Prior knowledge:
CATH superfamily: SMI1/KNR4-like
CATH topology: SMI1/KNR4-like
Number of strands: 7
Radius of gyration: 14 Å
Number of domains: 1
Structural class: alpha+beta
Strand order of the largest sheet: 1-2-3-4-5-6-7
CATH class: Alpha Beta
CATH architecture: 3-Layer(aba) Sandwich
Largest sheet: 7 strands, antiparallel
Shape: globular
Number of helices: 5
Distance between the termini: 30 Å
Amino acid sequence: MTSQFLFDPKFKTNSPTDMAQIAMLESIIGRSLPSQYRNFLAVSNGGVGALGPKGYIDLWSVARILETMKNFTPLKFQPEFLAVGSDGGSEMVVIKYTGNEVIFGYMPFADFKAENFVELGNDFKSSLESIAMGSEFT
């Protein structure tokens, strides 16, 4: 499954998570995860490494997502965002929920404000493709 998402052979995935953990996360956030991302978590529970010719990503495990929700104060005041990883540097990979729309994007750790959101794509795969081709936070 992970090969369809452009991961480099050196991309290191975690062991699969059980569906109960994913259901618990969805219950806590009060929303369903996007299906492609949910499927990714089910088979890998996150991972880290190269993505395509120009990208790098650290996709967090369910436990790390929950820990970040608890400890990263700006998320408590902006519930439309769910942090799911980082670019390995100063940018957080987030899912933005707006009504029925879901958008993946970047937000800076240091200045986590809605106006700093940079869209990557409207589904998991297209977002990974953007990162793989060198899309960066600007």
